[in-house]
Amino acid sequence: MLESVDAVLLARLQFAFTITVHFLFPGFTIGLASYLAVLNGLWLRTRQAVYLDLFNYWVKIFAIAFAMGVVSGIVMSYQIGTNWSVFADKAGPVIGPPMAYEVLSAFFLEAGFLGIMLFGRERVGRRLHMFACAAVAVGTCASAFWILSVNSWMQTPTGYAIDPATGQFVPVSFWLTVFNPSFPYRLCHTVAAAYLGTAFVIGGVGAWHLLGRDTTDKAGARKMFSMAMWMATIVVPIQIFIGDQHGLNTLEHQPVKIMAMEGHYESHPEGAPLYLFGIPNDRTQRLDYAVAIPKLGSLILKHEFDAPVAGLDTIPDADQPPVAIVFWSFRVMVGLGTLMLLLGLWSLWERRRHRLYDNRFLLWAAVAMSPSGLVAIVAGWITTEVGRQPYTIYGLLRTARSAAPLDAGTVGATLVAFVIVYFAVFGAGLVYMLRLMARAPLPSEPALDEIATGPLHAAGITPAAAIDPNVIPHA
């Protein structure tokens, strides 16, 4: 059956599946690492036990998410070298150095201080432990810096030349390849999205425990819910502004992507409408059953009601992305962003009325919105990547010419294997994280090393330390 399917399509589906799963974990740990650093800093400054309890509560979840992010990320490199070896050969001289710097700087920084962050509070002193927390937070952001630089170069390539002998892209300016035109906007937009995704998970967990009927001290739940709602209130409007600027940058450098996002099959010389909904029809090149607001599309894209906007009728069919996917993923992202803004404003209203923790409708809304930030991250990523098609390097290297010469059966078999293994391994990890979140943070929440009853490293552990619950093994 797989032999009848296009091998390139299967390779694209495999990469899309694995990177979607992977992207959820960095999207969560980038924000959670910074949150842990803030909690630890607030505890050192105020000595309020609630901050230490929340740190000890969330650091256990961070450790699991970080580990799954590392494991799922390794797969991406292998896929580039197997399914997409032609792309790796052509673009390697440009994308190789930033990816190496990501490992040498960001990942080594995270990995080097992660153990101190998890287990070192009573072993290295509070100042060095705080430095380790900050180093891990900086490392996660530095990792995003390098990876997004590579992805942004693929979207808006600059600072390169093409070797006439090999056809390879070679850098003529390292800094122009790193700081390409879309990179600053993409970096700010993605990091802010990661912070919001984490905040809504934390807010949802806090709201869940505030709604619970248990009689335990809910100081931790109140604190995490309050901090998350502050993040929603302040950062969502900033994110909307960043998104608008990113959209204008995309209009300048990738206008076809904007056409697909907006559903503009036809050009509008006297002002484009904003299509709220519709059914994209690539065959007839029209948006069926469209619901539109006249002129508003031009106002958003060019800040003038009557500004002309080009449509996909100016682009050959072979150079157009799959409009339906881009059109709907963009609306999922924007729709969730709008709901996040409303929830943040609602929480601010209830905070001013001193009812932040008492309005059960608000708390249930926060629980329902807890995965919204991560879903919006995935929707935004789909918009960006599918909107770049049919190119891997925008305007220069087509996806069909980037894939390795593999048969469909081989690629399809590995796709099926990835789906089975991912659902088993990462599904189990997700279930375990949800179980940890389902338990409310306790007063005097135990630290990670206080609950360890087994080996904390691979060598040098005596059997007694591993089986005696009264013995805490030393890292």
Defining key terms:
single chain; transmembrane helix; Cytochrome ubiquinol oxidase subunit I; two-stranded antiparallel ribbon; two-stranded antiparallel sheet; disordered C terminus; 2 domains; 6% strand; 6 strands; 475 residues; transport; mainly alpha
Describe this entry's structure for a reader:
The protein has 475 residues and is mainly alpha-helical. Helix 5 (126-155) crosses helix 7, helix 7 (183-211) crosses helix 12 and helix 7 packs antiparallel against helix 13. The chain is built from 15 helices and 6 strands. Strands 1-2 form a two-stranded antiparallel ribbon. It has 2 domains: 23-180 and 411-442, no CATH class; 228-405, no CATH class. Helices cover 67% and strands 6% of the residues. The radius of gyration is 24 Å and the shape is globular. It comes from Sphingomonas gei. InterPro entries: Cyt-d_ubiquinol_oxidase_su_1. It is a multi-pass membrane protein. It is found in: Cell inner membrane; Cell membrane.
Determine the structural class based on helices, strands and strand pairing: mainly alpha
Tally of structural domains = 2
Tell me which oligomeric state these chains represent: single chain
Instruction: Report the major sheet.
Output: 2 strands, antiparallel
Strand order across the largest sheet:
1-2
> Unreliable segments (pLDDT under 50, ≥5 consecutive)?
456-475
SS field, number of helical segments: 15
- Proportion of residues in extended strands: 5-15%
* H/E element sequence: HHHHHEEHHHHEEHHHHEEHH
Shape: globular
Radius of gyration: 24 Å
What gap, in angstroms, lies between the N and C termini? 51 Å
Write down the overall mean pLDDT.
87
How much helix is in the residues?
55-70%
Transmembrane segments: 23-45, 57-80, 100-119, 131-148, 192-212, 224-242, 325-349, 361-382, 411-434
Protein name: Cytochrome ubiquinol oxidase subunit I
Family: Belongs to the cytochrome ubiquinol oxidase subunit 1 family.
Subcellular location: Cell inner membrane; Cell membrane
